[in-house]
Amino acid sequence: AYNMITKIGRVPVIYWPYVVWDTDGEEGGNLQIRPGYDSDWGAFVLLARRWQLQDKGETEVRVDLRSKRGIAVGNRTDYRTENTETNFLFYGMHDLEPPETTDDYNRRFDSEDNRYRFKAYHRHQLGQDLSLRLNLDAMSDIDMFEEWFEDGFEDYRQPKTFLDLRLDRERYTLSLSLRPRVNDFYSVVERMPELKAEFPRQPIPKTPLYYEGETSLAHLEMKWRDFDLARGPGLADPADYEAWRLDSLHMFYLPFTLKNAWQITPRAGFRLTYYDKTSQTPVTTGNLIQLFQVDDPDLISPGGSITNYDDNGGSELRLTGEAGVELSTKYYRVWDDAKSDFWQVDGLRHVVQPYVNYVFIFDPTEDRENLYYFDAIDRITKQNFVRIGVNQRLQTRMPKG
Fold first, then answer.
1. Separation CA 386–CA 255 (nearest Å)
2. Tens-of-pLDDT digits for all 401 residues of the chain?
3. CA-based angle 64:24:14, to the nearest 5?
4. Which residues make Cβ contacts (< 8 Å) with residue 209, sequence separation at least 6?
5. Which of 186, 205, 317, 396 is 20 to 30 Å from 64 at the Cα level?
6. Number of Cα atoms under 13 Å in the Cβ half of residue 229
7. In the 8-state DSSP scheme, what is residue 232?
8. Using CA atoms, how far apart are residues 337 and 347, in angstroms rounded to an integer?
9. Residue spans of alpha helices (H) in 321-379
10. How many angstroms separate the CA atoms of 355 and 292, rounded?
11. What are phi and psi of 287, to 5 degrees?
């Protein structure tokens, strides 16, 4: 590096005309020293040391010193082999100024001064078509993710813990999933377990029809946040509920081309959904919105009564159907002279595909207000709408050889 300046805060203190630094982990690793001042942290020094794990990954140890917040330590390790990938993260501290909205409480949760995040991810390719993924993400409090891992928080607000075992074949995919809740300050739909069979759109032999389907069996449990501070005298929080759900969707398509330009695809299908438990007390859309409003952690003192599901409705089998048609066409332009060895580009083609899609969903045989809400499947109702859109793709030829 040339003409390098070392600063304390915004004040330049040392000028380096020329600096050489070793980034090869086999020769001792990489060292980071970052001093400064921040209004929330006070004076700070962030220290990190990184080592290469031969040619299979790296590990980094951190010690962060902040005058207002205290000492934090952490480790991040990434390790890869031909068939596996493993990522480990730990970051913890005794926070001298943990976030509080009122005395001893952060919103409606107990204030936590011993704060941490522990994350472990592992992917294992067990065979050509079989893969396993595991992810554990545990945190001390609801603000840990947003405050100390802001980049990740912008991508997804609520980290997931899961296990996925997946078999991918040409005509179908089978999967076994577990989705437990490990952070009780989040509202989560647990899936313990969920078995799923997915069939991508494919031709039915000896017919002009195509078939697409998905069937799943899951034990689902809605777990609302466990608040430490009650809403008020006589005011209840949302109550957890659970059920086994078997859901099976089957769609049939009859595509054809009109005047060698317009692709027309009529479709029709049905969906069967079985619940081993339902609610005798109806929960309307307005009641459901109110449950989520009361569950909002940013509302310090949410008021008003709520309507919870009960478990007195017995089992139910719901049937609904769908019909529709999609009309689409394609326009494209080709640039044969576009070449790039670095980007592996050998000519470019820009495809523009406008479409119009009409959808009609029949009135289900069971009222959704008595079915537990876990996801969009449970709120299906009669619908009749048109969707207009454009798909675009940029394509190139495969490299020769």
1. 19
2. 788 887 877 888 778 787 766 555 444 457 888 888 999 999 999 999 998 888 899 999 999 999 999 999 999 999 999 999 999 999 999 999 999 999 999 999 999 999 999 999 999 999 999 999 999 999 999 999 999 998 888 888 899 999 999 999 999 999 999 999 999 999 999 999 999 999 999 999 999 999 999 999 999 999 999 999 988 888 999 999 999 999 999 999 999 998 888 999 999 999 999 999 999 999 999 999 999 999 999 888 888 899 999 999 999 999 999 999 999 999 999 998 888 887 788 889 999 999 999 999 999 999 999 999 999 999 999 999 999 999 999 999 876 65
3. 55
4. 203, 252, 253, 254
5. 186
6. 18
7. B
8. 6
9. none
10. 35
11. -65, -40
Of 137, 25, 120, 127, the closest CA to residue 78 belongs to 120
Neighbours of 384 (CB within 10 A): 10
| Distance linking the first and last C-alpha atoms of the chain | 40
C-alpha dihedral over 351, 356, 360, 361, to 10 degrees? 30
- What whole-number distance in Å separates Cα of residue 293 and Cα of residue 303? 10
Instruction: Say if residues 361 and 376 touch (Cβ distance below 8 Å).
Output: no
Q: From 275, 369, 279, 381, select the one nearest 320 (Cα to Cα).
A: 381
For tokens 């501070």, name the residue: 229
Residue with tokens 């980290």: 159
Structure tokens at 395: 């394509």
In the chain, the amino acid numbered 23 is T
Which residue type is seen at 58? Answer: E
């081993």: which residue's tokens?
Answer: 276
Please list, in sequence order, all residues whose beta carbon lies within 8 angstroms of the beta carbon of residue 304, skipping any fewer than 6 positions away: 235, 290, 294
Task: Judge whether 348 and 334 are in contact, CB under 8 Å.
Answer: yes
Residue 378 φ/ψ, nearest 5 degrees: -80, -10
- Contact call for residues 44 and 67 (beta carbons, < 8 A): yes
Strand 105-106 versus strand 109-110 pairing type:
antiparallel
- Enter the tokens of residue 141: 């409090």
Of the candidates 83, 81, 114, 109, the one whose C-alpha atom is nearest the C-alpha of residue 96 is: 114
What is the rounded distance in angstroms from the CA atom of residue 143 to the CA atom of residue 128?
40
